[in-house]
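To assess whether ligand presence alters the predicted conformation, the chain was also submitted together with NAP. Input:
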Amino acid sequence: MKDIIIITGAGKGIGRAIAIDFAQRAAQNEQFHPVLVLSSRTAGDLEEVAGLCQDIGTETMIAETDIADPKATETLVSMTMEKFGRIDCLVNNAGVGRFKALTEITEEDFDYTMNVNAKGTFFLTQKVFPIMQQQRSGHIVFISSIAAETAFKSSSVYSMSKFAQNGLIASLRLYARECNVRVTNVMPGAVYTPMWGESGEHFKDVMMMPEDIASATVGAYLQPERTCIEEIVVRPTGGDINS
Ligand code: NAP
């Protein structure tokens, strides 16, 4: 049977690496046939990732979606259901960060961050969970952050949005346990991705790579269905970057 897997923010960074990891695992495992529904706002990125996954032998579908828009996520879910009739995994990876001093955060920074990380993630999860509830199977993964538990001076609104995700995860888990649905909270420390912009180059040597997070995440999905890896905390071996 095919595993229908939606990955948000699949065009860059950690989401891109998760898509490629799923495809690579499938190439090594005859029993595993993922279909990757790749979503983000940038079609060009998605086409590039879809091409890489297809070259490895994995079927993909591209869904250009702004997850901050509940109508767009409704379309993402209905398109997936029309085409495949089920959803086995949702990777809530899409996320944004505006890293500045607390006093410099504008209302636009606040709304932008909260609309993607908190509101967008909430409403997409709210649409997918009842499908899994009915299937009595499925797996919802959140790429949250260590900033959901540890605050940094520059992370005020980002931390707020990730603490909010942890609140959603804790509540969702109570429903999910009743219907055989797995929920995994992946909390990475600093990872070298486009999210860091130019400052990423400065810290590159003390950061993790997107593939490191992807391998832990896909590993959790590939556990036997009876086993739920509920939390994964991954940090650079040297600890957090103090920003
Ligand atoms: P990234 O390299 O900036 O990639 C983010 C992805 O999300 C892109 O594909 C982006 O594509 C997509 N995205 C952003 N806003 C979106 C929206 N409104 N709708 C749909 N897609 C959207 O970031 P990353 O570092 O891989 O981060 C991925 C996740 O890991 C985030 O949730 C982040 O908070 C978390 N995380 C990152 C780090 C780190 O150090 N990098 C550490 C801990 C946790 P478009 O812009 O084209 O839409």
